[in-house]
Predict the structure.
Amino acid sequence: MDEKGVAERTVLQLLEDYRKKDIPFDRVLGSMCTRPHPLAVKVHMQYIETNLGDPYLFPGTKKIENNVIDMLGKLLGEPRASGYITTGGTESNIQALRAARNLRRISNPNIIVPESAHFSFDKAADVLGLELKKAALDEHYRVCPASVEDLIDEGTVALVGIAGTTEFGQIDPIDELAEIALSNNVYLHVDAAFGGLVVPFLDKKYPFDFGVEGVSSIMVDPHKMGAGTIPSSGLLFRYESHMEKLVTSTPYLVSKKQHSLTGTRTGASIAATYAIFKHLGYEGYRRIVKHCMNLTSMVEKWAEKFKIETFIKPVTNVVVLRIPSVDNVIPMLEERNWYVSTTFKPKGLRLVMMPHITEETLKMFLADLGDVMEKN
Ligand SMILES: *Cc1c(COP(=O)(O)O)cnc(C)c1O
């Protein structure tokens, strides 16, 4: 800051210049985020000053949050689920595991996550003082239930399954994990950050939600496949008593307790999520998912034609291509203004077919990819 401020016009110009350096979504084929729905943007602005850190002052916005949780609960197989909207998948994972840890209160607690788990679990384990055990995957990059069972011991406070893994978009066998959880009396958290708004709208059905007995909590990010505004992640508990393990008393506020990790928190993205859920309905999301899965099949067909392996047959709208020297290909694509990503182990070119991608964009991209590979 300087002593004297500058004109609004000047500030806006400065920011416009910064913004131009960002990559427009049209050129992004490797992110799990997308351009928010225009209605979400509008509503976000309408609710910009709301703060659910103090629901006493924002009872209307608080009602919206409860409504979103009810809608998510209904979508995910338990209309009576409790929960709240967090700042993202990371907070949701931390909070779910915090509830699981607090339910047991034992010394040297551990959790078991698939090797494919998002790095937010590393953060969660560090913050919560949990030992993180990683279970092996099968040849389809799904967690291996036998490996989970082997890792369980008296210190295990939670198992984690993933519906829509970050790297491959794969869905873990949640029903098998649930059986293990039930027979060992252990908490089971499902990370559906990406898949929670994909899997329910696929033609093929997968057991992954509260419909599976033994699933204790689920989280899903409307700021990913929901086309909501950032930050928005729904964290849902089957039992209110589990959510109550997150309670902190807030003595100097009129509302006497809160469950969230953050204090001051926006209601804007929550209202935005409410708006698009209401506006799109199941039909709207089914249409979006269908579009994304069509793009996914286009990539698969292209790969087949050029004899490129995809590691797994895509389950959700993520395709990973086995491309020789993928690290050389990335900068060559960047030169042509395409932004993709890679998987880490095994290394592959990772494409996420998000709603902002059109068939035309994808065709142009695949033509460039073929060209770049030939030149490489
Ligand atoms: C993106 C992602 C997360 C983390 O979510 P943020 O909103 O980025 O904090 C967690 N789990 C999975 C499977 C994800 O894809």
Notes: The longest strand covers residues 156-162.
